[in-house]
Amino acid sequence: xxxVMQIPQYQHVQEGEDFTTxxxxxxxxxxxxxxxxxxxxxxxxxxQLVKSGEVKKQKRLTFxxxxxxxxxxxxxxxxxxxxxxxxxxxGPNAGNNRKLIWGLGTSLAVNP
Amino acid sequence: xxxxTQSSRYLVKRTGEKVFLECVQDMDHENMFWYRQDPGLxxxxxxxxxxxxxxxxxxxxxxxxxxxxxxxxxxLILESASTNQTSMYLCATGTxxxxxxxxxxxxxxxxxx
Lengths: 112, 113
Known about the structure:
The complex is a heterodimer. By secondary structure, chain A is mainly beta.
């Protein structure tokens, strides 16, 4: 069945280092979404990418959608302790686009 | 801002009890979802609803049922709670459409003893 895979599962960085998480779908996606969940919190929508090759930035966060619309990445420049959390990617379910297919998430820890 | 509220942040129940988890949203969204979240397993969809009285099974519906009598309210029911249903339960809402994004409630951490 349709799957969305995320790597790495965990990442531990020193404050100030860069961080990247990758998301790969088994099928072409009409869009991909990224969410962040702080420790003890709930997932919060960050961004949605729709176009092939699209790149969007939010301050130190850069999101990319691959040309084939099957993969995506989130890059954080110069991490801060406020970036700690789990980052999830998700795309529409091909069989029922009311549902999302979620990656398992990448947990980011930042050493001050 | 979308507001999604859940009836309890923490809940402790005994095995065999019937458990009701409620979710209320104030943004008139058509779609509502119940997920459970366990370490290492990500977000798993239990049930969702795209209209009043309409529901569809998600990936792990066994042991659960749902009710949506009003558009703003979506309830998750554990008919007979078991210890393997100890988990974080997250409600989410979203509008219809292929570019739908989801808005989550704060979650209910359920412990079944």
